[in-house]
Amino acid sequence: MTDPFSYQSFAVDVNHHIAHVQFKRPDALNTMNKAFWLELPRCMQAIETQTDARVIVISSTGKHFSAGMDLGVFTDPKSVPMSGDPGRMAENLRRVVMQLQDTVTSLEHVRLPVLAAIQGGCIGGALDLVCAADSRYCTRDAYFTIKETELGMTADVGTLQRLPKLMPAGVVRELAYTGRKFGAEEAHRLGFVNNVYDSHEALIEGVMAIAATIAGNSPLAVTGCKEMLNYSRDHSVADSLKYMATWQAGMFRPNDMMKTFQAKGQNKAPEYDDLFPVKGLFEQ
């Protein structure tokens, strides 16, 4: 039987309700090759369906978090035809780009919070990726860049859509138009990253501690927070309040609250039931 957590691009470890997804191609600067784009959404789904994880941490190895898109993704004629009818070639390319977008969006679709721990360079497609995480943390030597502009193309996998929701729009436009690097301190000052750490070791330790705090809360309450925050980002306050009321009417039960009160009364940590795994219609 195939190991659901055997990947070419990253290693996965699940302990104490925390799934740690770690990029493992430092010699290639953890570039996002074809295998990466195929594996990441499968990984998110496997964590959600086959583990007891309540939070996901994404980190990397080597000097840089990721140098971004491996250009081989777009030069493989098996994936992107290089000749033939222009209309059909364009339609095919559109589908390829949407598949790449779906890979990044898998971080939003997974019901667990996703924390990104970033060291060194976070370039191009890697910036697309971390923009879709719930929270970002980095080392003092980290830097970010919308590299696509400098290469002669428009970023197309999510940065231009998500970054304006995370940072001031005028700054995002400058970064997109110029392609310049912005470092850890600027990213922190603008609210893009939550905290800056002095070393990679301190980064991982700090982010894993935050993940442990999240994992100690009711998983139903936490997934409700993610659902509501993502919905509210894309809808009006009025619509979001109505959706919140509907969520509470359907999903809220006093069980976890009672466990919280009882645990506090006994001066110990509450123990919550895991979420039911998300299964396909015909899976057993």
TrEMBL record:
- Would the keyword Iron turn up in this protein's UniProt record? no
**InterPro entries listed in its UniProt record:** ClpP/crotonase-like_dom_sf (IPR029045), Ech1-like (IPR045002), Enoyl-CoA_hydra/iso (IPR001753), Enoyl-CoA_hydra_C (IPR014748)
Q: Which compartments is it annotated to reside in? A: Peroxisome
Pfam families per record: ECH_1
Keywords of the record = Acetylation, Fatty acid metabolism, Isomerase, Lipid metabolism, Peroxisome
Q: In which pathway does it act?
A: Lipid metabolism; fatty acid beta-oxidation
* GO function terms (MF aspect): isomerase activity
A GO biological process this protein is involved in?
fatty acid beta-oxidation
Q: What's the main place this protein lives?
A: other
Choose one Gene Ontology CC annotation of this protein and give it.
cytoplasm
Identify its protein family: Belongs to the enoyl-CoA hydratase/isomerase family.
Cross-referenced NCBIfam families: PRK06142.1
Name of the protein in question: Enoyl-CoA hydratase
| Organism, as annotated | Marinobacter lutaoensis
